[in-house]
Amino acid sequence: MRPSTMNAYNRLPHAPDCDCSVCWSRREMAKPARSQSTLCAQCRPAYAVPIRTLQMGRVAGIWKPLLSEWKVEPAFICEKHTRPDRPPKYWSVVLDTGRPEPYVPIHEPFELVG
Question: Which Pfam family, giving just one, matches this sequence (predicted)?
């Protein structure tokens, strides 16, 4: 193909039900990411709210609470979003041939046979 014909070919519109890698990638990128960091309806962040004020004071002419009693609600993370104790094992030993032998360079001259 000539270069001008190739450019015209590359710019042809794809069919709506096209299964080429370009169209598949475009469809996959359009889907929302299902990340483990996005929390579900069961997970909730930690939060703290003041229950009552124990001591007030004037700060720059405005009365503000200086000491309060707080209610702290710890975070809850469901089992699906809880991180594992150890990182996943990405590789394993296929064949263990024993202790590695040290590399010993050859300092003697040698001749090629053949």
Answer: DUF5447
Helix, strand, or coil here: 4?
helix
pLDDT tens for 71-101 read 999 988 888 888 777 766 666 667 777 777 7
Q: How far apart are CA 20 and CA 27, in angstroms?
A: 11
Calpha distance 29→36 (Å, rounded): 17
Q: Give the rounded distance of the alpha carbon of 11 from its chain centre.
A: 35
List, in sequence order, every beta strand (DSSP E) within the chain.
47-59, 62-73
Candidates 47, 46, 48; CA nearest to 76 is 46
User: Which helix (DSSP H) or strand (DSSP E) does residue 86 occupy?
Assistant: none
Q: Is 60 left (phi over 0), alpha (psi -120 to 50) or beta?
A: left
Domain map (residue ranges) of the chain? 42-82
The pLDDT confidence band at residue 2, using thresholds 50, 70 and 90, is: low
Q: Is 110 helix (H, G, I), strand (E, B) or coil?
A: coil
Asked whether the whole model's pTM tops 0.85, one would answer no
